Amino acid sequence: MLTLLSIRALAVRQPTGEALRCLHLTAVTEAARKGTREKARKKKVKVEVKKVGFIPHNQRDKKINVKRADKHVDDSWKQVPKDDVYVGRYYRWPVYTVAEAIQCHRETHHPSMYNVPNASLNVEIELNMQGEKATRFVDNFQRMAMIPHKFHHGEDRKIIVFTKENEEITKAREAGATLVGGVELIKDITNGELLLSDYQFIIAHPNILAELVALRGLMKRKFPNPKSETLGTNLAEMITKFSNGISYSATKDEYQQNFGLIKANVGTLDMDAQHLEENIRFLLQDVNTMRPKRDGRFITRVLLKSAPSSEQLKIDPFVYIPELYDKNVAKASKEARKEAETPEQQAAAAAAN
């Protein structure tokens, strides 16, 4: 006897006897294959085709170069305004001294206006990242600039220091290091009892460099070396620099490789104007050390800003640094740096390399 499960349909002769009709005896139907219904739904979705203009055959299936505005602002061809009322885009940007720019920001942040007298003063430094060759560009870099007048930068900077001598350990602790130690500290890190990732900066004295090599794999780029100024004999000075200095980074534009930008905080508006100016000078001098060996400007424009105001005031950076590259000056400064290095520092640099 046939069951409903085994028989899906029966052929039934109509009363006329001329034709056959298929009669379904069960409600169970064959399930669609996996993904069939999803494909059917996608077919029903109307696809909008974007119209694209004519593209030459040799440029098809390639990225089309979009014309972008040059980020290097050059308004030297514009005329100088003769009075205080003018349309800004048709004239050159006014250049202020640092003292004048600070005073302008203090006026806008007065209690009668923004009412933020202790707002932070920010510097934007625009760079020409062109290298020595036309096809080469300066790589992105991150540095710490030492400044003479410290301020609250709002960062939690933990510093770990490696040294052997007891006197150096005492000096490092007095300078404000988070953790100071010698060989026993290296053992704790090797055993996993202490994590290096908890510390932003690693500083070392040359007397412990031989034992510190065991942690080179863990430290990687943070391994102390003279170029990053994390290896030296004057631990107190290095600790002060990394705890109170200005941390900044230069990044190239994604589409314009010869344009770089640095954003840094140099203090607050309630600080003395001369102290703020000295901080800016030290920052510009530190940035200028990364200048490539080529003619032309490296620092192209410097703007002073202070939130929440959108006002940006241009200052002249070449009051504090040379405008153009001078081979003789660079050579003299390099020789002076070498002469200032102690035999221990020279040995440490050789060991680190």
Automatic annotation (TrEMBL):
Residues 331-341 have a biased composition (Basic and acidic residues). One of its GO terms (molecular function) is RNA binding. Belongs to the universal ribosomal protein uL1 family. Pfam families: Ribosomal_L1. The keyword Iron does not apply. GO terms for cellular component: large ribosomal subunit; mitochondrion. The keyword Mitochondrion applies. InterPro entries: Ribosomal_uL1-like, Ribosomal_uL1/biogenesis, Ribosomal_uL1_3-a/b-sand, Ribosomal_uL1_mit. This is Large ribosomal subunit protein uL1m. Residues 331-353 are annotated as: Disordered. It comes from the Eukaryota. It is found in: Mitochondrion. CDD domains: Ribosomal_L1.
